[in-house]
Amino acid sequence: MENSLFKFNKNVFLIPILAVVTIWLIYFIEIKYEFNFNKWGIYPKSFKGLRGVFLSPLIHSDSKHLINNTVPLAVLLSGLYFFYQKIATKVLLSGLLFTGILTWSFARPAYHIGASGVIYFLVSFIFFSGIFRKYYRLVALSLIVVFLYGSMVWYILPVEERISWEGHLSGFLVGFVFAFLFRRMGPQTEKFEFSENEEFDQLFDAEGNFNPPVKNEDEDEE
Length: 222
Description:
It is a single chain. The chain is mainly alpha-helical. The chain has helices at 2-5, 10-33, 52-55, 63-83, 88-106, 116-133, 136-149, 165-181, 198-201. The mean pLDDT is 86.
């Protein structure tokens, strides 16, 4: 059962590689041809700024910004497509859309760019999905995510002026909501299945734990 839920498929490698190559290629084009794509980012409460909902994750302000987003984006996308392969694409595209729209709806009047909103969405979704599903492998994944990226939680607050904490907060909130909404989809904890032998089944409780019935002392022995 578990082997069919968690197995390598081409998207575990293909999607992260495609995402990383795309953001690096766009940054290379900016530098090579002296373009500035910042104005294609999310500009809140502006109809024109809506184009950044899908384009902003592809645009980065400088090499440091790009490098900081590259590794977590690749790792988290791999985790999403390995552990949640059946719903990964739906979760990713929907999360990208709603994270962008939420950022657009309340953020400061500035161009918000970078893949960090998506990264915060992935961190939040993967962490809370393991908690909601109570699946030991996914809970272990949640703990790994906390260990690797737990310090990121501070950046959902306005601690630094140049950082789009609004995008981070949007991704975090959308990831939490999606983890709850999709909790019945994808991998689930295995339930104990009873056999056709009723006498044998009575030795176990509903969770599959050995729990034989207590014999009443007042009953006569045959």
